[in-house]
């Protein structure tokens, strides 16, 4: 009997209802997290600004290698005197976003944490590791695989012409692909939110997998900077794999499964 009495408070704390927040409270919390994230990215921007020349060199590496392969002039051009300065700003900004992504994603966790059971809030570390790893992996995949393949196709397709690639156009394409792949790799995290709120379920995702794969290839065709099937498949392949992985994520965090686990711990 004493042992049962001693364990009773722990069980009661596990069954403690989740705190409720009003709509305005949610908006205020969202505003706070967005402000903190923006401040962090600005700090990351200034931290990366001093390394901007080296970062620009890394950014130009894919196009320089492709131009060298085809014996073309290995330099980007600019049409506006402010383009080089804007290039440094954009590169430092993107690098600052990747550099501060752990803090930004932690703000995301703090925003959704009130909607979790007490024992589920202990999973902050797995959430942080997975979300940061996926975002960085997406950017790396875009830089090392998608972008070089796209550039090689485009330069080879127009090899009968003399290219004059401007800084502005090259930077826009680079940022679109790198950030785009980073966000695409966050698909399991998006599903995490949707399943957490009960908007999607693992059963629904599995039964509609054919339509989802079709949608993925349509998105890949839109985002791919080249019209060839190979690059579209390179875009789509990780998205399909992440979708399948997201089904497991949805099963873990869906309210029905969370309720069952909460009842088992009570």
Secondary-structure element sequence?
HHHHHHHHHHHH
Using DSSP, what is the number of strands? 0
Regarding quaternary structure, what we see is single chain
**Percent of residues in beta strands:** under 5%
Report the mean per-residue pLDDT as an integer.
Answer: 82
- Tell me the major beta sheet: none
Question: Which shape, going by the Cα principal axes?
Answer: globular
Uncertain runs are: 1-15
What separation lies between the terminal Cα atoms? Answer: 17 Å
Percent helix range: over 70%
Number of domains: 2
Quickly count the helices: 12
Radius of gyration: 23 Å
Given helix and strand content, the structural type is mainly alpha
Summarize the structure in words:
The protein is built from twelve helices and no strands. α2 runs antiparallel to α5, α3 packs across α4 and α5 crosses α6. The protein is mainly α. The N terminus is likely disordered. It folds into two domains: 163 residues, no CATH class; 81 residues, no CATH class. 77% of the residues lie in helices and 0% in strands. The two termini are 17 Å apart.
Provide tags for this entry.
266 residues; mainly alpha; 2 domains; 12 helices; disordered N terminus
